[in-house]
Design a protein that fits this description.
The chain is of the alpha/beta class.
Length: 730
């Protein structure tokens, strides 16, 4: 190694730039991996990698010991990372409406569709970091350099200044501490990082314009400095991780020619449960106003101003987690408030029981259309504040405002929940967007929600030809209004989630006045119209130009002891699907979850849109191959980390500083705060009073538990399959 580097450096200093290209090719992956671990951003790490080599080229003549080029290179990368972190500052002001509108719509939609895959990859990387933390520092360093830097034992020994035998021993001990599946996960994940193909080309183009710095007359650069700094760098990088992986959802657009309603938030947000003590100590106050003697939770102490760190000045809210308060209005409407001190933003989200798998017979997508009409009916839509979404088992109506306008938002929710008559004008405006949505979902192979609605028609109502486009076109306004009045607003089935700068005492009093007078009636959701013993394997047609496959398994409800392990199994399987190369070649979007919930039953489901001319049996076979490993405990190395993460998430929302640090560049702090409100509201709606018990249960799930429930519940005998094929054109 040292002879090669020494000779290359001599050639470079003699004017041979191609020799420098050889060094770039040799070390670029190691430098990039270390930079990525330091700053946590893949693409900025590429920029630092490029700057590292350019700086090394400029100052190559100052290196006194050519044998120590590798350590010297890593010290340069370390210093550039420190500079980047020091200088890096998030955008200090929210994007205005005009800026948001300027974002290219198709670019954003592609971002939304690809986000799940990105999150899955990042989460695997977080799991690897956790596994590495199990090792002593000396072994951790060796494993990192071996897999992440792709260095041999001899190269690592030279880099760290120890013998090859020592490196070999450390690597052996590390492997003995890790399970075979854990080592395989580390190898696959760290070895799978791919640099941009033009990185080296960019470096060499700039090298051609650089004049190397002449050798100074000062003291030589001692090799031990390089070894020490690089070793510390590796150790520190292992501790860098994203505390929370969040999903962002763009507000619903009623003006769009093609409205994306792809379900971005189907599941719990995955958290890193190894939070800093300072974060855990702030989790704090969860208050039930109905059981509180003082009917409130507001602290008597004045809120202190937020602490702005060097790298992240918090702009609109406090650094700590929201204060969670729950109460019930006199008419039975449940409310959960996430009070964010010092925030000027306020989001109000209502969750109602009618959803895509609750539609009545021959009424596919009616809940989606009712959702659109509900938001339009109170009057002209303010597109900056009003939005909505139809989910599998519920409908969400949203108001986005601030501490000056939040009472107007309550008034809007009161109108939505009061059942104002639909208007012909609203239907005329809603229909084109509802129909345009079909084309968008077909084009992007994102027919997941449509498949949920079709599954409901087949297995709950016995339909064999699913009508969606035609059903939307032909439905009468009076039918929609009657259907809404019968099924939408039900006593005991309405939840409002409020997030932002309104304290719970003020909120409760005002909500009681504006919403507490709404008369909620006992109603029932559309009942199934077929017998439970319907054939488990169904192939039907639908008026969607995509073939879609969905399979489902009946599972117990969340209060059952097996539910947490089944939930974790769904997450593991989803990660496997997203990253599987074979599946990507034959399918569009593939989902897996436990949020297929009918009034009668909860289902574990797998759902995939198929690319044209794909053999459905090939898809099924590959899914089985990816599911089978979960039946063996030794293949479930990620369970312990995931279980703790889910337990933490259900216990309390994240701190605002932590949340904002994970904010994508083009997303405002306001949207991140609102997204937290949407996500938390979904969890509250799905799990309600069982959340504390479920959080505790998640923490106890083991790899054996996951293997056990997969073998007991996800069996051939319990499997229900549905193949949806495009109807033949007449």
């Amino acid at each position: 190694m040292e002879k090669d580097d020494v000779q290359l450096i001599h050639n470079i200093l003699s004017g041979d730039d191609e020799a420098f290209g050889t060094l770039v090719q040799k070390y670029q992956k190691s430098v990039h991996a270390l930079a990525w671990r330091k700053i946590g951003d893949f693409h900025y790490a590429e920029e630092i990698t490029q700057d590292t080599f350019l700086q090394a080229y400029r100052k190559l003549s100052t290196l006194k010991d050519y044998n120590q080029f590798a350590g010297w290179l890593y010290v340069i990368a370390d210093r550039l990372c420190i500079d980047w972190i020091r200088k890096r500052k998030p955008v200090s002001q929210a994007l205005g409406d005009s800026s948001m509108k300027a974002i290219d719509k198709l670019t954003y939609e592609r971002y939304v569709l690809e986000q799940r895959e990105i999150e899955a990859t990042e989460y695997r990387q977080e799991i690897v970091k956790r596994l590495l933390k199990k090792l002593p520092e000396s072994e951790r360093t060796v494993v990192t350099l071996y897999y992440l830097g792709e260095m041999t034992a001899k190269e690592i020994g030279k880099f760290l200044g120890v013998s090859v035998n020592t490196i070999t021993s450390r690597l052996k001990r590390a492997r003995e501490r890790l399970k075979a599946s854990e080592e395989l996960l580390i190898n696959d994940t760290l070895g799978g990082l791919q640099l941009s193909t033009n990185l080296m080309e960019n470096i060499m183009q700039q090298v051609a314009d650089i004049e190397p710095v002449p050798s100074p007359s000062g003291k030589p650069f001692f090799p031990w400095v390089a070894f020490s700094a690089a070793t510390v760098l590796v150790i520190l990088l292992l501790g860098v991780s994203n505390q929370y992986l969040t999903r962002f959802q763009k507000p619903y657009s009623f003006e769009a020619q093609s409205e994306p309603t792809i379900e971005i938030i189907e599941a719990l947000t995955i958290l890193d449960s190894d939070a800093k003590p300072a974060v855990q100590s702030q989790i704090g106050r969860v208050v039930d106003l109905d059981k509180s003697n003082n009917n409130g939770s507001r602290s008597s102490e004045e809120a202190s101003p937020p602490n702005a760190s060097e790298n992240f000045p918090v702009i609109t809210a406090s650094n700590g987690p929201p204060i969670v308060t729950r109460f019930t209005l006199s008419n039975g409407i449940r409310v959960v408030n996430l009070h964010v001190e010092n925030s000027k933003d306020v989001g109000i989200f209502s969750y109602l029981p009618l959803g895509l798998v609750n539609d009545g017979k021959a009424k596919a997508q009616w809940s989606n259309l009712i959702m659109r009409l509900s938001v339009r009916t109170p009057g002209p839509i303010d597109y900056n504040t009003s939005s909505a979404e139809a989910m599998a088992d519920n409908m969400r109506l949203e108001f986005r405002g601030n501490t000056d306008t939040w009472t107007q938002g309550l008034d809007l929710h009161a109108k939505w929940l009061s059942g104002l008559p639909f208007t012909a004008e609203s239907l005329a405006k809603a229909l084109p967007n509802a129909l345009a949505e079909f084309g968008y979902l077909e084009k992007n192979l994102a027919t997941h929600k449509l498949a949920h609605a079709a599954w409901n028609q087949v297995f709950r109502h016995g339909e064999t030809d699913i009508v969606m486009r035609e059903g939307i076109r032909s439905v009468q306004l009076s039918q929609l209004q009657e259907y809404r009045d019968q099924h939408l607003v039900q006593a005991g089935r309405v939840l409002l989630c409020v997030i932002g700068g309104v304290d719970s005492e003020t909120l409760k009093d005002t909500m009681e006045k504006q919403l507490g007078t709404i008369n909620l009636h006992e109603k029932t959701l559309p009942q199934p119209t077929v017998s439970p013993d319907i054939a488990k394997d169904q192939t039907v047609t639908w008026d969607i130009n995509v073939t879609h496959y969905i399979e489902a398994y009946a599972i117990p409800r969340p209060e059952n002891e097996d539910y947490p392990a089944l939930y974790i199994a769904s997450v593991l399987l989803r990660l496997a699907f997203i990253q599987d190369v074979q599946l990507k070649k034959i399918t569009g979007h593939v989902y897996c979850g436990v949020d297929l919930v009918t009034p009668e039953q909860v289902y574990f489901y797998i759902s995939a849109s198929l690319k044209p001319n794909t053999d459905i049996e090939r898809v099924k076979q590959r899914m089985r191959q990816l599911m089978n490993p979960l039946k063996q405990s030794e293949n479930n190395a990620q369970v312990s980390v995931l279980a703790q993460s889910l337990s933490t998430e259900l216990s309390a929302p994240p701190g605002m500083k932590t949340l904002m640090q994970q904010k994508p560049e083009n997303i405002t702090e306001t949207h991140m705060l609102l997204q937290l409100g949407v996500s938390w509201g979904i969890v509250e709606y799905q799990y309600g009073e069982t959340m504390p018990q479920l959080a505790s249960a998640f923490a106890d799930v083991s790899a054996d538990d996951v293997a056990d429930v997969v073998k007991r519940y996800l069996t051939k005998d319990e499997r229900m399959t549905l193949v949806l094929t495009p109807r033949a054109h007449e």
